[in-house]
Amino acid sequence: MLFSPNSSCFGCVFLPLLLLLLLSATAVFCGSIVRYLPGFDGELPFKLETGFAFSFFGSFTRLAYYCFEVTKARSEVVMMGVLFFRYVRVDEIEIFYYFIESEQNPRIDPIMLWYSGGPGCSALNGLIYEIGPLAFNITAYYGGLPSLEYYPYSWTKTASLLFADVPVGTGFSYTTDPSSWTTSDTTTAQQTYIFLKKWLIDHPQFLQVQLFVGADSYSGITAPMVVQHILDGNNDGDTPRLNLKGYIVGCPRTDAGINENSKIKFLHRMGFISDELYESAKESCGGQYYEADFYTPQCTEDVKLIEKGTHDLDKNNILDPKCTWASPQIDGDTKRRSLEENPGNFLLSPPIIPDFWCHNFNYSLSYIWANDVRVQKALHVREGTLEDWKRCNKSIPYTMDQKSVIGFHHNLSRYGLQVLVYNGDHDLTIPNVGTQEWIELLNITVVNDWRPWLVDGEIAGYTIKYSEHGYRLTYATIKGAGHSPQEYKRRECFEMFHRFISYYPI
């Protein structure tokens, strides 16, 4: 049980603070410009660079351990202090990346590092399905190599995007050291920070522009850790200094207990649970539904009834058909299911019924495209380093060693950062009510009350803004969107991002 009724502390989490001894490290970036891609008609109308970041560090990593306390009433987060330091090695890995320059003014516009959730989901997911300038032409697919089309509502309209396949084993990333395949939340944050720093050293023209870190889904766990790495490196005088301005997390996993407990509250609000059953569960479980087997028999029974009545909902978007006949096989560890799938379960051609659509069908095209040898050659993927590309690699030996990162967010609120947190309002995987709950635990002053935000005069969602001592956090919902919101409402999400990155009110 994550939160014991008799305990007020959810434990200690350790925060790696990297001390990069650059003179004792070697790093080689093999980046190449991509002008043509199989499936796209003509030359790409934007600048795309792909490559591997090879890093072998003979230096060590300094680890600082922090302990954060959540009070029994869960009304505040208190930093309890640095406990001790120790040293560990950083191994040899090759991180694959896609870099797309801003289509406006790359020498002035911000740059954002973006990596997907899972853990183990490829950066190509973000590039093709969420925020990049390319999309598959799904309606025109009837076999063969999928075709690509330019997507106008790309976040590259206003910022440069650096997509990274992290952790190692994700997408096209790999390692020559067998021991480096084993990873965790902590090592993922390490790998991501090291990659970002070395990439910027190799691309010094972007060191002076504003830097943002962006992630979604399960990577909501590691994103604030990466941000803390950057701040600690800057504070320790590491060179070059990174021009960090803020971070963005979409439908972010943040706290295991809050996320799981919020699902029943969300289902009741959306009308999927009767008032009687909800009140019974709330009373018998005390509002703590996470790992309910540890509670009373009545609590266990109520939770089972709720699960039985809502089992056939699409967790990523409760408005969509679940499409059991074309759905992913869920891993036994439900915490890793948000972007994972077994491609063999997907149809490789459009549904027979023309008016019937399954969201999961979209993903099958990425397997066909990314595993084509012509595509891999165009992307400059090293031959022989990968047997089978997966959108989400579930075979990575991964340890989820951070149950909650609320403490990281609380610590980051001491800095003058710009933060955007957003949710689809029909997402059951990471419900918006849970996100709002952990934001409230940060105890930051509300400066702009809850209000609708508009696109073309229509309500696109709702937003609220918090600010304290130069730290500004904007929270936004996207109406009708699921998990991840950009897959459902790309135009609205682009407007949200553009306003935020331009320091306009959403």
From TrEMBL:
GO molecular function: acyltransferase activity, transferring groups other than amino-acyl groups; serine-type carboxypeptidase activity
InterPro entries with a match to the protein in the record: AB_hydrolase_fold, Peptidase_S10
Swiss-Prot/TrEMBL GO biological process terms: proteolysis; secondary metabolic process
A Pfam family reported for this protein in Swiss-Prot or TrEMBL: Peptidase_S10
Keyword set, alphabetical order: Signal
Signal peptide from the UniProt entry: 1-27
Signal recorded as keyword: yes
Assigned protein family: Belongs to the peptidase S10 family.
PANTHER family: SERINE CARBOXYPEPTIDASE-LIKE 17 (PTHR11802:SF329), SERINE PROTEASE FAMILY S10 SERINE CARBOXYPEPTIDASE (PTHR11802)
Protein name in the entry: Serine carboxypeptidase-like 18
Organism annotation: Vitis rotundifolia
